[in-house]
Design a protein that fits this description.
This is Vacuolar ATP synthase subunit E. InterPro entries: ATPase_E_C, ATPase_V1_Esu. This protein is α+β, with helices and mostly antiparallel strands and 180 residues long. Helices cover 60% and strands 11% of the residues. The protein has 2 domains: 48 residues; 94 residues, 2-Layer Sandwich (hypothetical protein PF0899 fold).
């Protein structure tokens, strides 16, 4: 039968120092993790702000912006596959969107073996002027819309590209078992 021995004051003090040192070390490691995570989130947020600013700059080059809009409208035409669609844009983009819509309509007809489509620029409902650019494509009934604004495209890219952005900025995380 074993006996329970009481610890001396020196043994109790020693155990308390060990526990205190362990707790302090854990707290320092947790604080380091939190700081690294905050730096990572800050860098990602900063890159997103820079991307938003670059998106706004695209709209200043009319030829480039018109080509982008044409492709965004074409994407909507192919997705909806309807004879009539409406396009929403910012008021200041009306002219460039009209040109892009005409070019998209011609390319759609060519690629779809002569299939005609009518593209109407929505004059009643406009995209907010504070958006970076892009268009929203709506089917003839108004029930289906495709949001091809720059902000929406960037949001989609963020969720898809976040793992590779994180790896590029901070390197591969050795603790991760699975890659996205």
């Amino acid at each position: 039968m074993s006996q329970i021995h009481a610890m001396s004051d020196d043994q109790v003090a020693s155990e308390l120092r060990k526990m205190t040192a362990f707790i302090r070390q854990e707290a320092l490691e947790k604080a380091r993790e939190i700081h690294l995570k905050a730096d990572e989130e800050f860098a990602i947020e900063k890159s997103q702000l820079q991307a938003n600013n670059k998106l706004a700059d695209i709209t200043t080059d009319d030829a480039k912006y018109q080509d982008i809009l044409k492709n965004l409208i074409l994407e909507g035409l192919y997705a909806l596959n309807e004879a009539k669609i409406s396009v929403r844009c910012r008021s200041k983009d009306d002219d460039v969107v009209r040109k892009a819509a005409d070019a998209a309509q011609a390319e759609y007809k060519e690629k779809m073996n002569g299939r005609e489509t009518e593209i109407k620029i929505d004059d009643k409902d406009k995209l907010p002027e504070e958006t970076s650019g892009g268009v929203t494509i709506i089917n003839s009934t108004g029930r289906i819309d495709i949001n091809n604004t720059f902000e929406e495209r960037l949001r989609l890219l963020q969720s898809e590209a976040l793992p590779s952005v994180r790896a590029t900025l901070f390197g591969e995380n050795k603790n991760r078992k699975f890659r996205d």
